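Severity: low
Component: inverse-folding endpoint
Summary: output formatting inconsistent between runs
Steps to reproduce: submit the following structure tokens with default settings.
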């Protein structure tokens, strides 16, 4: 694309963002406050037991 076309595209995208930012932010806020989103995020952040993340001390000592 030519530079003038890219500059025009950037101006149009910026104008659309300024115009629709309140609507987009309202939708994002509504999604973040929804119960479904909170359930999904709480399940993905569950911590694994220590024994899964690290090698047990007895195994590490026997193979070194």
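Observed output (run 2 of 3):
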């Amino acid at each position: 694309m030519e530079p003038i076309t890219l500059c025009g595209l950037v101006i149009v995208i910026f104008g659309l963002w300024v115009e629709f930012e309140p609507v987009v932010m309202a939708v994002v806020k509504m999604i973040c406050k929804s119960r479904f989103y909170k359930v999904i995020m709480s399940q993905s952040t569950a911590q694994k037991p220590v024994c899964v993340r690290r090698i047990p001390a007895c195994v590490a000592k026997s193979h070194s």
